[in-house]
Amino acid sequence: MAPRFEGVDFYDTGSLLSEEERAVQATVRQWVDERLEPVINRHYLEGKFPLELVPEMARLGFFGANLPEQYGCAGLNNVAYGLIMQELERGDSGVRSFASVQGALVMYPIHAFGSEEQRQRWLPKMAAGEVIGCFGLTEPDYGSNPGGMITTARRSGGGWVLNGAKMWITNGSTARVAIIWAKTGALDDPSGIRGFIVPTDTPGFSARDQQGKLSLRASDTSELVLQDVHVGDDALLPHSAGLKSPLSCLTQARYGIAWGAVGAAMGCYDEALRYAKQRVMFRKPIAGFQLQQQRLADMLTEITKAQLLVLQLGRLKDQGKATPQRVSLAKRNNVNAACDIAREARRLLGANGILVEYTAMRHLANLESVYTYEGTHDMHTLILGEEITGISAFE
Amino acid sequence: MKIAVCIKRVPDTETRVKIAADGASLDESGVKFIMSPYDEYAVEEALQRRDKAGGGEVVAVALGPDAAQETLRAALAMGADRGVLLKAERIPADALAVAKALAAELKDGGYDLVLFGKMAVDDYHHAVGPMVAELLGLPCVTAVSKLELEGGKGVAEREIEGGVEVVEFALPAVLTAEKGLNTPRYPALKGIMAAKKKPLEVKPPALGEVRVVAAALALPPERKAGRILGEGPDVVPELVRLLRTEAKVL
Ligand SMILES: Cc1cc2nc3c(=O)[nH]c(=O)nc-3n(C[C@H](O)[C@H](O)[C@H](O)COP(=O)(O)OP(=O)(O)OC[C@H]3O[C@@H](n4cnc5c(N)ncnc54)[C@H](O)[C@@H]3O)c2cc1C
Fold first, then answer.
1. Is residue A1 one of the residues assigned to a domain?
2. Mutate to test the pocket of ligand 1, among A102, A145, A376, A382 (most ligand atoms within 8 A of CB)
3. What is the mean pLDDT of chain B?
4. Residues A35, A91 within the same domain
């Protein structure tokens, strides 16, 4: 069995955490070591999400953990929530993605834009892992520009009829419920975008897994087709209004991703350091060579910066001050740093670094998805550019 | 069913410890502390017994510094109902002094069962549980690896040299837990939040007279570096010779 993960905390950021926050981190860390690590490689190679872990993840409270207790959630603050994402992604980005989608992209909008009845109906079951959700925003022709979407929702009798296609939808084929974003007005009017809670067994709804992924293999990614899908009026999220509604979900998920990426980086660094100390070449451990020391020093530096960044972002979020732009900066920086760290870790490991027995290459491949989804690195650059200059480069 | 479970805050078995300037205690700076792992089995057993009995109370008791509240809250997060900290700046090296304080706390509690880990992983005493049993005048079964309770009676299995011993006893009783008794649960996140709201009483311990003190602590000698004799079948005789004469493992 792999050695127990002891954490990477050069600046003693643990001392900035409360006792509960540390306890949450300890639980998830131990769970990842004992339950996820032993099975993740097999799932990764088979290209499947480890669905059998869902009941325990739910029992421990990993889903929607920062939502209120009255809906069966753990009611944690945002730092504790971030620590869950960090530890999960140390295990695997696909497993963290599952939790992000369930919590930040499905439970969050039901909580934020749903009626009290919708919250009561869905949130406890989702927290308990009995209902898995997915989030359908991206379309084949609308990725970075979701406002251009062509999926429509039209009034029909007392309800709605949805038509369109969604692509790259995490959990799409396993979900029992989908949050579908669709235009209720003219196609050139993003202010008519509304969210719908669509049970995936509704006639006309179909999901098909996308094949041939070389990244995020332990996560199901699907194409959704909605052909004359009739839903009642109670499917509409009554408080959703325009593109800003799905974007606010993305802000929640991106926040978790900014934490998660640090976890993947910590895992890679930990593995690289162990390996460097034990791998002997030219009669000494490769850790004794300046080039490898530079690799390790760069990794630790970037990890430490990223940790401080998300911790302060989390404190701001708890005070209601984590603006989307602040979240963009953290997602952009931390995922990019994690990509670099994973790549350098893989290289430090030499030939072993391409094997699934070591985590670096799996993290490296995974992080390429993380770099792209939830707003590509480039889009976050532009969001920051607009924030800094007041001039949008993309609108 | 009313169950007390006595738990101890100990340094994480995987931290490298340093000896403090006084030469007789640990330098605690930078050391991560955990619940002694055998105590986790005791807590888990207590929770399972309570739930199986359909009710009752699990009280976690610790003797230790203020920081041991964190250890108690870990037990509360797992599901214990309340905690009691017998607050002592230092845990005496005298097991009997500790046992007397715990026994005084437990004496009038009306417990059906008092559980301990079979030993604390820091001092290896294996002593406090049986001493408390003695002080309370209760039957004691140590290193329990399997347990059945039925109508005021218990049957426990103990792993002994070369086999298993099955013992019967009457409740109330004091038991100490061996590894494998159960699988301790993870403290769920909701449990961690709930633990904050559960009662945790802090009071001074009625410590017994301390007649044993730790005079000095020393770290084990550094392990010598390994030696590579060579490769292939030719070196096997030399390897066997050294395993016999030097390492003395054959
Ligand atoms: C594994 C995985 C899971 C996903 N899960 C989900 C999900 O659950 N739900 C969901 O709705 N979506 C999901 N997505 C979709 C994801 O959010 C999109 O892939 C992402 O928004 C990028 O869109 P695109 O792939 O169409 O790229 P495009 O938008 O086509 O971008 C292609 C390239 O052009 C660049 N680019 C685009 N516009 C500009 C510009 N204005 N200026 C400069 N450069 C630009 C981009 O940065 C990128 O490099 C997932 C994606 C992946 C890979």
1. no
2. A376
3. 94
4. yes
